[in-house]
Amino acid sequence: MTDAALSGPHVQADELDSPARRARRRLFKRKAAVFGLIVLTMFIFVAVLAPLIVPYDPIATSWSLVRKPPTAAHWFGTDELGRDILSRIVYGARASLLAGLISVAIALGIGVPLGLLAGYRGGFVDALISRITDAMLACPFLILAIALAAFLGPSLGNAMIAIGISATPVFIRLTRGQVLSVKAEDYVEAARALGNPPWRIAFSHILPNILPALLVQATLSIAAAIIAEAALSFLGLGQQPPAPSWGSMLNAAQRFLTQAPWMAIWPGLAIFLVVLSLNLLGDGLRDALDPRQR
Amino acid sequence: MLNFLARRLAQIVPTLFFVSVLIFSLQQLLPGDPALVMAGEERDPNVIEQIRHQYRLDRPVPVQYAYWIKGVLSGDFGESLRNKMPVRELIAQKLPVTLQLGSMAIIIAFLIGIPAGIIAAVKKGTAWDYGANFFALWGISTPNFWLGIMLIFLFSIELGWLPASGYVPLTENWRASLAATIMPAFVLGNAIAAVLMRHTRSAMLQVLESDYVRTARAKGLSERTVILKHAMRNALTPIITLGALELGTLLSGAVLTEQIFSIPGFGKLIVDAVFNRDYAVVQGVVLVTATIYITLNLVADVAYILVNPRLRG
Fold it and tell me: B247-277 burial string, b = 16+ CB within 10 Å, else e?
């Protein structure tokens, strides 16, 4: 009996562990990522259960309650039209999280197939897609989103489309790079030798192997998309009044900064917490999914 | 080197072409008749017909593009619908303001980000390191428009130290100019400082484990000399070029920062243009932004090769 034989079963248990389970275990070991996950889950609950949680109607105005500082009845105070800020923050979570999710879903939906195509096919198709990606990346993210939102017209839906399109090139480039690095692997060669059509190789053999990288990027992109939605709404290009959004609340807050500073604190804090938790989660996922860090 | 430069330049041409197509096609996104949208409040059919003719909206799209790009190549971006000024002049007027703001932001970012990154790497695992990492996370996660509003509240409204908004050209009164731009520059630089800190930290950590740093230490040099003379120089080379790549963050950030502090720069120009439905200005600003970005990327690539002798071929 050698040492190696003795430690054999132990090593094997770790090897038999599925990659997903191993990644999950490593993710939960990171305090920062767990903190991010908890805060994020809280916000998701708040957004989903908004109608059940809010103490007041988020768009009901009241002239007797204009710009009142936080009290026991209105924890976060009231805004320039006498609306309850807490209720508006809760409903604002819906707009923000939805915008983050949908715009990144759009970016994934366009970016991943194009990246797969460019990486797998190569040649002219690759050159064309890559140059278009370069062109889009040359326009700063928010400026491109603002320009798109301006031409599409102001609304939350259009803001999501604008942000989604602006976030697409990152996913094209990432997917393409990942495809190039796994294309030459033996299992792809084997799938090809078996006569699988290219689209099936791309979707069933290559895609699952690049999912971890996409997941990390998607998490960080949702954070960026939430900031971008807040920015567009701040400028009046996103959620339209009277529907609440954290960005437009900050816009109103700036106008009443001298009289009602509390109006500026809560929406900013909400954006900060959501974005922070997504960034923490993204960083944690990157470390947990990195195969070099077993 | 020449070969590399030629190859990079050859790559830029198609990229710029696609940028121009992309920006031109924004116009096609306008819902309904673009002439009607451009006319805004104006409902006089003659005026609308004139707009249609002036912008060649009555011609096929590729022809419209050909005319547009021909103008752009000779420096003619069209004219602002709002105040009838050539877009080129508007941009030339606003760009220096944003350049001043951006340069100050970059200086602030380097002054905070690099020392913080070095300290975090040298004192890895200590409270200093955690503090710097927390600062970086805070910088990346704080929406800069919120930071701007909070700073205005603190320094302008509560303390009354700095003006809440407005701009004074540097040439007119440099003190007033700096007072008006220091807050927005900090807001802009903050996020970049965070990115720089993270990169500096990881570059320093890598260098500190290298053989030549071990040799320097073995020679009996003081830790100070080892870090400042041997480690830092090598770690910072890639960081300098990273500064150029953060330009996109800078320009995106300038849009909101200038809006909040009412600074008449590039960012305010595009926002005002968006609200005035001044589409030629929007297109001009995006095109110039993209061109600056592409050019700076090229400069960064070349600089990287120049400072890194191993890459010179």
Answer: bbbbbbbbbbbbbbbebebbbbbbbbbbeeb
Structure tokens at A197: 């059509």
pLDDT at B310 over 70: no
- ipTM associated with this complex: 0.84
- Which of A132, A151, A227 lies at the smallest CB-CB distance from B18? A132
From CA B91, how far away is CA B94, in angstroms rounded? 5
Task: List, for residues B181-205, the tens digit of each pLDDT value.
Answer: 889 999 999 888 998 898 888 888 8
User: Measured between beta carbons, which residues in chain A are less than 8 angstroms from residue B27?
Assistant: 151
State the Cα–Cα distance between residues A113 and A215, nearest whole angstrom. Answer: 15
Beta bridge partners of B79: B86
pLDDT per position as a tens digit, A194-207: 888 888 888 888 88
Inspect the interface and report whether the beta carbons of B252 and A267 lie closer than 8 Å. Answer: no
Q: Do B293 and A268 touch (CB under 8 A)?
A: no
The predicted pLDDT at position A7 comes to: 46
Name chain A contacts of B255, Cβ cutoff 8 Å. 142-143, 146, 231
A268 burial (CB, 10 Å; 0-12 / 13-18 / 19+) is buried
More confident residue, A227 or B40: A227
CA A109, B23, A135: angle at the middle one, nearest 5? 60
Does residue B86 sit in helix, strand or coil?
strand
For chain B, say whether A138 makes contact (Cβ under 8 Å): yes
Cβ contacts of B142 on chain A, cutoff 8 Å: 268, 272, 275
Nearest CA in chain B to A131: B15
Residues in chain B: 313
Angstrom distance (rounded) from CA B121 to CA B114? 11
Q: Does A19 touch chain B (CB under 8 A)?
A: no
Q: What is the pLDDT of residue A218?
A: 94
Q: Which residues contact residue A67 at a Cβ distance below 8 angstroms, ignoring those fewer than 6 apart? A: A77, A78, A79, A80, A82, A256, A259, A260, A263
Q: In this predicted model, what pLDDT tens digit does every residue of A229-255 receive, in sequence order?
A: 999 999 989 888 888 899 888 888 888
Query: In A, which residues are within 8 Å of B290 by CB distance?
Result: 135, 138-139
Distances (CA, A) of B90 to A96, B79, B178, B272: 34, 9, 23, 12
Asked whether the beta carbons of residue B255 and residue A146 sit closer than 8 angstroms, the reply is: yes
CB proximity list for A52: less than 8 A, separation 6 or greater: none
Determine contact, residues B30/A151, Cβ cutoff 8 Å: yes
